[in-house]
Structures are given as structure tokens and as C-alpha cells.
Design goal:
mainly alpha
Length: about 350
């Protein structure tokens, strides 16, 4: 056996081990965490996790349904994509690409083993880390929204929102995780396996059909919104700088934080789809300060909440399923680039 064949065999065996340990149910906890639970209490623990996961999934889907129906019933079948744009984005232009993308993620490949999060260490460590990233996801947009409501300049808020992401989404969680692992029992090391670099060829190729159809329907499909024109970006230098900053702060930082850090831990705690749905809602919440609908911040809040759930939240369902199915962070960056960066190339 060659060295490369031996490596592929070892990687495949490792993934089979993870999948076999966790494919019992989408709501099951990780095999490593479960093994540290006394046998007598295991049925109660799993039942509690299933109950919480079921409530999260049911409540989260109800929020998505209410957002879409609420927009339609109030005559808002299109919205402004952000506070600094006068264009309108049709609701169908957000839902159709996501629906097609979800379907292709599910079908390609048809019988791929589920790659569940592998958690090594005590369950308390997992809960502490999840609490940190969830708190950041809730508090950062809320603080910026309060600043906007208090009359702070939108330019200042936009700058803090963009440039603060590397600090809040990368550095803060990293330092918090290290502090937790040092402060608590060193005999119970805690680690969540993220699979940053997929070793199997199918995990690189399988996302391509979903990304292609998502990109086509989002950018030039029958319900896609208008693409930016050259007049929208008159300064080529500013365009290049802005696009570069966006790639790092949005396409990379947001995906690493919301999918790799947050969703992985939510899946390990509550199950695959509860983790995807809850992570998607928190991703929608991120856009509260920057995607307000209308000039009145507070009176327009219900419409803003419905819009960010129906638009940014549904995108996060697609990205979340991409991550859960393939565990390929680069597919996430590609998906985010389709909606954030590729329109600039089509001007």
C-alpha cells in the first residue's frame, strides 16, 4: 500500500468511526461525550437532549415561517438589501436559490455518511464554549443596534461592525477557549474537531452542484435582484480595498464563527438540524444593525426582523447544511462570496 493510499484509508476509517458513533439520531450527543455519562443516566440524558433539540427545531422553523408569511401578508414581497441601498430584492429571489441549494446538498452524493461533530472531553467544556460564542452572537449586534437607535452615525457603526469582526469572531473566542481549558480540570481536555481541510475528494467536489445552482439563481436567475452598476462604485481603488476587506471580515470571519465555531457546537449539543436552524437565526440577528427597513429604527423593527430572517436567515440555512453535510469550510467561503463578492465581478 502506498503512503497516500494508507493516509486515505486512515482518514476514511476515522470518519467511519465518528459516523457510526453518531448516526443513531440527528439529535444524539457525540459518542465521546456520551461515554463519560454514567450508564444509568444515559437514557435520561439523551431524552433531555432530544426534547431540547425538538423544541429548538420546532420553534426555529416557526420563526422562519412567521417571517416569510408576515412579509407577504403585509405586502412586503421585496425589501431593501441594506440600509445604504435603494434597490429592492424580491423575496422569491432569496427563497428559490436556498430551496434549490438545499435540495442539491441533500442529493449529492445520495448516500454519504453523516459527518457528525466529534467532541473530545467533558460535556461541561462544550457548554462553556457554546455559551461564549452564543453570547458574542447575541450581544455584538444588539449593542450596535442600540448605538444606532441612540443616534450614533451610521458610518461609525458600519466601521465598527466590519472591522470589529476579526476581534469578536476570531480573537475573543480563541482566548476564551484557551482560558477555559487552562482554568478547569486539565485531566479532562476538551476539543471539538472541525475538519478544516477535508481529506476525501468527494467533500471537495460534492458541494459544487449546489454552489453553482445557488449562484446562478442568486445572481442572474429569474427572481434575482439587480446587479450593481459601475456608477455604484466609481473609485476602482476603493472598490478593490472594500472587496478585499469584505472577503476577510464577512466571507471568512462570519463563516468561521457562525458555522465552524457556533453551529458545530450547537449540533454537538442539540443535534444536526436544531443546530443548523438556531445558528441560522443567530446569523440573521447579526444583520439587525445594518439591514434596517425604513428610516425609523424602532418603529421599523418588526419589518427589519422579518426581513433579516427571511433573507439572511434562509441563506444561513443553506450554508449551515453545506457545513453539516460536507464539513468543508472553503465551500462556505465560496457560498458567501457568491452573494457578497461575485456581483462586483459582473458589473
Amino acid at each position: 500500500m502506498s503512503r497516500s493510499e494508507g493516509w486515505d484509508t486512515a482518514c476514511a476509517a476515522g470518519e467511519r468511526y465518528v459516523a457510526q458513533g453518531q448516526e443513531v439520531s440527528d439529535d444524539a450527543t457525540s459518542v465521546a461525550s456520551a461515554r463519560q455519562t454514567p450508564a444509568a443516566g444515559l437514557p435520561t440524558l439523551l431524552q433531555g437532549v432530544k426534547t431540547k433539540g425538538g423544541l429548538i427545531l420546532t420553534g426555529g422553523l416557526a420563526v422562519f415561517f412567521a417571517a416569510v408569511v408576515g412579509l407577504l401578508l403585509t405586502g412586503h414581497d421585496s425589501i431593501m438589501p441594506s440600509t445604504d441601498s435603494d434597490d429592492r430584492l424580491p423575496l422569491a429571489g432569496a427563497l428559490l436559490p436556498v430551496a434549490a441549494g438545499l435540495l442539491l446538498v441533500r442529493l449529492v452524493p445520495p448516500r454519504a455518511s453523516r459527518i457528525a461533530p466529534e467532541v473530545v472531553g467533558d460535556r461541561d467544556g462544550l457548554i462553556r464554549e457554546t455559551a461564549v460564542v452564543a453570547a458574542v452572537a447575541v450581544l455584538m449586534p444588539l449593542i450596535l443596534f442600540v448605538l444606532i437607535a441612540a443616534g450614533t452615525s451610521s458610518d461609525i457603526v458600519q466601521g465598527v461592525w466590519a472591522l470589529g469582526k476579526p476581534v469578536f469572531f476570531l480573537l475573543l473566542p480563541w482566548f476564551a477557549f484557551r482560558a477555559f481549558r487552562t482554568a478547569y480540570d486539565a485531566s479532562k481536555p476538551h476539543r471539538v474537531q472541525h475538519w478544516w481541510w477535508p481529506r476525501q475528494w468527494w467533500r471537495w467536489l460534492a458541494p459544487i452542484p449546489a454552489l453553482l445552482i445557488f449562484g446562478y439563481l442568486s445572481l442572474v436567475g429569474p427572481f434575482s435582484g439587480p446587479l450593481p452598476s459601475a456608477e455604484d462604485y466609481p473609485d476602482p481603488v476603493a472598490l478593490v480595498i472594500g472587496a478585499t476587506v469584505t472577503v476577510f471580515t464577512a466571507n471568512i470571519c462570519e463563516e468561521v464563527f457562525y458555522r465552524v465555531m457556533l453551529q458545530t457546537r450547537l449540533e454537538a449539543l442539540f443535534g444536526r438540524w436544531p443546530g443548523i436552524v438556531l445558528g441560522a437565526l443567530l446569523f440573521a440577528w447579526l444583520h439587525l444593525p445594518t439591514h434596517g427597513q425604513g428610516s425609523a429604527v424602532l418603529t421599523g423593527l418588526p419589518l427589519t426582523l422579518g426581513a433579516i430572517v427571511a433573507f439572511q436567515g434562509t441563506y444561513a440555512l443553506f450554508a449551515g447544511y453545506l457545513w453539516a453535510r460536507y464539513r468543508n469550510a472553503w465551500a462556505l467561503v465560496a457560498a458567501h462570496s457568491i452573494i457578497n463578492t461575485f456581483p462586483l465581478l459582473l458589473m
